[in-house]
Structures are given as structure tokens and as C-alpha cells.
Amino acid sequence: MIDKVVANAEEAIRGIEDNMTLMLGGFGLCGIPENSIAALVKSGVKGLTCISNNAGVDDFGLGLLLHKRQINKMISSYVGENSEFERQMLSGELEVDLIPQGSLAERCRAGGAGIPAFFTPAGYGTEVAEGKEVREFDGKPHILESALTADFAIVKAWKGDRAGNLIFKGTARNFNPPMAMAGKITIAEVEELVEPGELDPNFIHTPGIFVQRIFQGEKYEKRIEQRTIRT
Prior knowledge:
Elements: H1 9-12, E1 21-24, H2 34-43, E2 48-51, H3 63-67, E3 71-76, H4 83-91, E4 95-98, H5 101-113, E5 117-120, E6 134-137, E7 140-146, E8 150-161, E9 166-167, H6 176-182, E10 183-194, E11 213-216
Parallel strand pairs: 1-2, 1-8, 2-3, 3-4, 8-10, 10-11
Antiparallel strand pairs: 5-7, 6-7, 8-9
Helix pairs in contact: 5-6
């Protein structure tokens, strides 16, 4: 067994340099790699292209990197909770590629599976389809979408073992697993790090073969964007 454990987030992000492409898992503020993002902010790395379903909020998640002007381009689906993102996009400071959510997930999954491109009906007839090949299947037009990969994929799991096998919890299981497959180097931060053999193989979502570095995170805030309660 290859022991993939590193000491902390600072050691995990070693090798991430200016102008690289990163994938960052999570959905809203659920299942985001909080420790790794904080380490990236401290590192001062800049010119990043970030592939993520969303861009965090103004003072948390990827919003922290945006405030420091460390991101040049965002490839995302939902970005409505971040006013700094909006400001940078409208001013032309930030390049943005908005993608339908299902297409974004499939483009990441395809990248990890070695599938270079696929046809989907999502986005046909909109700006999303501009400049893309269109073919008709079963009488319905589809557009050609290319796979997405990254220099580094950074994910956050509930549990993981020293070999890199991961289990995700709840909503964190949407973008994290496909992104873990699509990075040249995949970093996993986990809430609980266990010894090999302690995870039931039937419940592992991402096999360790896809993970190169793993560490146990700490002090997770797990913020909620919009807390709704009954009056």
C-alpha cells in the first residue's frame, strides 16, 4: 500500500503555481475544501483558472481567493451568492465561463473517464451553444461539449484512509467524486482519517487510485449560505 498522507494543507498544495487550472469540489458551501482554500490564499498563488460549481460567498470559500485577485478565470454553474464575483465579472477583471450544472458535472466526469467530448441537449439555442458543433439525435438537437481536466483537483470528504480511499456525505457527493477523477494530481482533505481496512469497500465513493495526497482537515466552519427557519 502507498501511504499518501501529508501533514497539512500547506504541504498538500505544494506544486500549485501561478496560472494553473484547479478543480475545487463542493456545492454552495457544502463539502468545500476549506483548509486547502485557506492555504492557497496564504500562498499568494495567482492567475488561477478555477473550475467549481460555485464561487463561494464574499468572505468564505473561493470568495477569499477572489478578494485577493488570485483567480483570473472561473468555470462555474451557479454564482449568485457572491457580490465580489459579480463586480469583477461586470468590470471585466474576471473571465467567466458559465455552464449548465449538469453539463459541468458531466464534463468533469468525462475528463476523469478519458472521454474527450460528448453531445448534450442542454444549452442548445442559448449563448452556451455559440461556436459549438450541433448534431441531431432522435430528432432533437444536441451540442458538443468537451471534457474538463485540471492540473490539481482539490476535494473534501467525510472519511478517508491512508491509501486515499474516500467516502463523501450527503450533498458533498455531487461534484467532489467526478472532480477527484479529473485532476492530474488530486488532493483530498477529510474530516476523519482512518487506517486502511477500516472503510467498508462497499461504501467507498472514490477509490484511492485517483488520489495522490490526503490529510485530515481541522476547524471546519461548514457555513450555510441562506439559513431558512420557520417563523
